[in-house]
Structure prediction request, 115 residues.
Amino acid sequence: MNHFIRLMIFFIVILAGCSNNKATEYPLLPYPEVVVWDNKSYVVTDEIVSQLSIGQKLGHVKRYIDPTIALPEKNEDSTIAPVGSTIYEIKGRDLKYEFAVEINGQLRKAVYNEP
Prediction:
């Protein structure tokens, strides 16, 4: 009987380790530091963009979203840049993949990585 109980515990442990726990359908909070542009979330990096590299003004952050409470949903939402922060193109760079956003007086690069 003792052998049977040990064998059952062994199989339960093995089966529990093989369970198919799927990740949730929704991203977990807190959400990363992003600015939404053209319906895509661009991750804001620590990389500083030179003033000489700045192109035309694209827009401004319209809504700050607290990353611990909600997800950014609309263009010009941000989880890092305050409302009113300016978004700029970077000269010679493809806007599809990167741009600059002004945060606390610094121009920081925001990048998009296609899934």
Q: What stands out?
A: The CA atoms of residues 20 and 111 lie 33 Å apart. The first strand starts at residue 34 and ends at 37. The radius of gyration is 22 Å.
